[in-house]
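Format notes (please read before filing issues)

Several people have asked whether sequences and structure tokens are stored in separate files. They are not. Every record keeps both together, in the order shown below: the sequence lines, then the token lines. Line labels are part of the format and must not be stripped during preprocessing.
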Amino acid sequence: RDNKSLGSFRLDGIPPAPRGVPQIEVKFDIDANGILSVTALDKGTGKKQDITITGASTLPSDEVERMVNEAEKFAKEDKEKRDAIDTKNQADSVVYQTEKQLKELGDKVPADVKEKVESKLGELKEAISGGSTQTIKDAMAALNQEVMQLGQSLYNQPGAPGAGPGPAPGSDAGPSGSAEKG
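Then the structure lines:
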């Protein structure tokens, strides 16, 4: 709605991967003559695609000036929209990662901790579907706090790596666990 399409291209051949794994570097370059060059590079495969658009603006100069003035006028509103979109995308990612972690850990998570995480997860999903940017940020922070508790509870469980009592301080227990000297 607010943009004018100048051209398009596809970056094909990106292998299927979990969300957030592919890394695509996109570069835009506009030279003094108004020639636009766009390059997209898949960092994983090295595949590259580019497009050069000459004579990108077939618009009269007064139309271009009007568009620039409009862009400046709505810059703050656009920044707020971008922040809202970025926050929502980040929240979606947090939901995905948390659900994945809960699924992977399964029964290793204490029931009370899992219940709290799932509750905060539900609150974040609700905020994503209809809350303000600040509500989403607050729900994300609350969920992250519970996820930290989840991690802490895993390491505090008996039988967890590094958990449980070790040799008593000051004891001479050797590798066999015996304090006797031979």
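For reference, the curators noted about this record: The longest strand covers residues 24-30. Helices lie at 61-73, 75-105, 111-130, 133-156.
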